[in-house]
User: Which sequence fits this backbone?
DNA sequence: ACTCCACCGGAATACTTGGCGT
DNA sequence: ACGCCAAGTATTCCGGTGGAGT
């Protein structure tokens, strides 16, 4: 058993080598800054709509759209806590419950979560009316009844924030929303208002028109950030996150520019900055330079590529493997016909169903869609029409991922090497 | 039990240009 | 020299099937 000295020594160099970060947590998605740059108009709009609740009136329901990383959740959370603060100063009762529908995605769990949020930090209720809805078991209408009782018992205005509401609608339909929009008619002493947050504009199509009109009494659209705005956001966080003078001048503008040409996604920009810092830190540099940002960009891209390939269905991986083999041979460009021929040799050796060409071309275009390969249809006159494809990033990572798939490697994938392919073509 | 969706293959049709017939 | 043909898939349309969810 190693003594304490040795155990500490193992980690020591990683702990002391930290010249870059002062507080890395600030760069994470979960961090909520005190100030939200360039979102003043949105904050004011939301505040204006919610303001009536301080006079114990029901605010309009709001539907908020915007791409990922445009500050929707941050703005709503910010206004929400401000509203709760203001209400406690003014002696009115306003409460905000935030629900992320990505994880809470059934009607039952949404209701239970609302109920839980109601009684959570409410000291008055916790004394007597802490009737907690069990995580499962009750019929839905009983849950509704219980929720109404709780609302009536506490009174005041409740604002329900349904984050990623499109996920909820997709998974369990609009029944939940329908019920929630109607709940006000059954309440006397209390009022309920809803805020829906979505990054998918098309989710309205799945909604009952009545629900939609009720839910979207007010609609807000959050525009993406442009590069200068992203600069401000990054600068604000970098001041806290990094030690003084470790960022070279071009770093933040470059992160902002790269993220802006993507989607104006602030999360993406923060990731870029954080990973840049991590790389510089690991390389034991004292400053973060644009070089590190470039590396960070490549790393993030390659990580998502690896992630993407790893989750591919087995058949797609076999198709991809066929292409890798072709790529290893002299030709960097290959046709769907060649891929198909190799695939048809590999697949049976893997105990897999052999798909037809029809299906393979689908998988190929899917791979193209995902950006793993590039394709181009060409007509070769007498020699027919085909699709050419090629890799444009280096294939080592892809090799690694494919080889690490247990179902493939179990069948001796590595036996099918280049010589094997060449023999195939005779 | 029933619906929905992802996956699959067959048949028909589309596409394009090098080669071949004239 | 000119124009039509044919190769070889791509692409579209559609219908079947098994499994997951309700």
Assistant:
């Amino acid at each position: 058993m190693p003594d304490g000295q040795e155990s500490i020594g193992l980690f020591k160099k990683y702990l002391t080598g930290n010249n870059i970060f002062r507080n890395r947590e600030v760069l994470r998605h979960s961090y909520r800054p005190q100030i939200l740059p360039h979102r003043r108009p949105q904050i004011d709009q939301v505040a204006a709509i919610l303001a009536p609740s301080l006079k114990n009136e029901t605010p309009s329901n709001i539907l908020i759209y915007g791409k990922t990383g445009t500050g929707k959740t941050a703005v709503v959370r910010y206004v929400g806590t401000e509203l709760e603060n203001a209400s406690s100063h003014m002696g009115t009762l306003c409460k905000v419950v935030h629900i992320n529908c990505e994880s809470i995605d059934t009607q039952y769990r949404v209701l239970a979560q609302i109920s839980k949020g109601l009684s959570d930090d409410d000291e008055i209720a916790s004394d007597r009316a802490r009737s907690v809805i069990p995580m499962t078991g009750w019929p839905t209408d009983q849950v509704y009844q219980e929720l109404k009782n709780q609302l009536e018992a506490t009174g005041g205005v409740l604002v329900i924030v349904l984050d990623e509401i499109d996920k909820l609608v997709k998974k369990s339909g609009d029944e939940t929303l329908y019920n929630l929009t109607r709940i006000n008619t059954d309440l006397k002493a209390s009022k309920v208002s809803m805020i829906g947050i979505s990054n998918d504009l098309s989710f309205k199509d799945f909604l009952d028109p009545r629900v939609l009109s009720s839910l979207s009494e007010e609609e807000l659209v959050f525009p993406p950030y442009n590069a200068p705005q992203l600069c401000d956001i990054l600068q604000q966080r970098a001041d806290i996150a990094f030690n003084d003078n470790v960022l070279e001048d071009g770093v933040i503008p470059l992160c902002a520019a790269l993220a802006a040409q993507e989607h104006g996604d602030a999360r993406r920009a923060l990731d870029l900055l954080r990973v840049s810092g991590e790389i510089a830190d690991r390389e034991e540099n004292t400053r973060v330079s644009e070089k590190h940002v470039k590396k960070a960009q490549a790393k993030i891209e390659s990580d998502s590529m690896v992630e993407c390939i790893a989750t591919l269905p087995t058949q797609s991986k076999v198709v991809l493997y066929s292409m890798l083999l072709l790529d290893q041979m002299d030709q960097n460009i290959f046709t769907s016909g060649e891929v198909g021929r190799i695939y048809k040799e590999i697949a049976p050796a893997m105990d897999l169903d052999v798909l037809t060409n029809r299906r393979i071309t689908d998988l190929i275009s899917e791979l193209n869609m995902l950006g793993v390969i590039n394709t181009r249809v060409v007509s070769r006159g007498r020699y027919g029409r085909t699709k050419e494809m090629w890799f444009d990033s280096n294939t080592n990572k892809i090799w690694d991922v494919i080889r690490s798939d247990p179902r493939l490697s179990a069948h001796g994938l590595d036996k099918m090497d280049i010589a094997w392919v060449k023999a195939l073509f005779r």
